[in-house]
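Milestone 3.1: sequence recovery, worked example.
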């Protein structure tokens, strides 16, 4: 489904980002994988065995200058960019009364500013190509809010505003911009939750199970591919049907 396309995926060292990288490689995309963790270099080596070109880049996506530098390098290396998946994200959960300024700033920088940074790094290339698909990882809590996650929810709601604005700004250039809002997905980010919290949570999910990273990767594949060529400015929930 992605034959001949070049995709950049941030936060690709593990979890949802890694699952998206695997899914895209299976569908023949060439990949530039980014993460703050050096593990991304191993993931790149592993996926290259599937017969596609994969290069890993270790950087902090909240650093604007590094993103512009790496964006240039990727365009030189691959010659084009068809898909950007802004997936890197962190949590620093706490009730607002206890939330520090550092907790707030870290989450907004890594989750929201990074989306600006990476989009700026590739948009001129997409405009030259007159095509592109930008996929931003939001969250159901960016739509519905969540106690203890004011910083995270604000960053994910910000991503939705950014995604919809970009769709309006770049639609005439044939560049699409969509967001995915996952619910509870089984990754390192969520596995620290206590068993009772987890059990109670599952009872609120109509499909009665947590999501797998692959459930999100399937939607990313759809949004990256030409099957979604008339879809832009949308937020697609991948949440097992929970009410938001
Ligand atoms: P994860 O913690 O397993 O993986 C996050 C990835 O982002 C890692 O590869 C990490 O190295 C990378 N990363 C973190 N900070 C970075 C930085 N500053 N620069 C570059 N890379 C950085 O998380 P996950 O569960 O796979 O989540 C992926 C995305 O999906 C996040 O944006 C998260 O907010 C969102 N999400 C997850 C869930 C869930 O239930 N797991 C639900 C909704 C939304």
């Amino acid at each position: 489904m992605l034959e001949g396309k070049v995709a950049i995926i941030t936060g690709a060292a593990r979890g949802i980002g890694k699952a998206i990288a695997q899914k895209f490689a299976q569908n023949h995309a060439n990949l530039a994988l980014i993460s703050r963790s050096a593990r991304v270099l191993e993931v790149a080596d592993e996926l290259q065995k599937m017969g596609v070109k994969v290069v890993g880049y270790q950087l902090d996506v909240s650093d604007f200058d590094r993103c512009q530098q790496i964006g240039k390098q990727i365009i030189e290396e691959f010659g084009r960019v068809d898909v950007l998946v802004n997936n890197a994200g962190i949590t620093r959960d706490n009730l607002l009364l206890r939330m520090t300024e550092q907790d707030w700033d870290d989450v907004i920088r890594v989750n929201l500013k990074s989306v600006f940074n990476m989009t700026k790094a590739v948009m001129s290339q997409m405009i030259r190509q007159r095509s592109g698909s930008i996929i931003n990882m939001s969250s159901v809590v960016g739509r519905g809010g969540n106690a203890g996650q004011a910083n995270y929810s604000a960053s994910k709601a910000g991503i939705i505003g950014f995604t919809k604005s970009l769709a309006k700004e770049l639609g005439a250039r044939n560049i699409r911009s969509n967001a995915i809002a996952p619910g509870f997905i089984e990754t390192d980010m969520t596995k620290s939750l206590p068993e009772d919290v987890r059990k109670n949570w599952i009872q609120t999910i109509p499909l009665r199970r947590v999501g797998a990273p692959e459930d999100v990767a399937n939607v990313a594949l759809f949004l990256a591919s030409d099957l979604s060529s008339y879809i832009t400015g949308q937020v697609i929930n991948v949440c097992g049907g929970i009410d938001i």
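DSSP finds eight helices and seven strands in the chain. Residues 10-11, 13-17, 35-37, 60-62, 87-90, 110, 137, 139, 182, 184-185, 187-190 surround nicotinamide-adenine-dinucleotide (CB under 6 Å).
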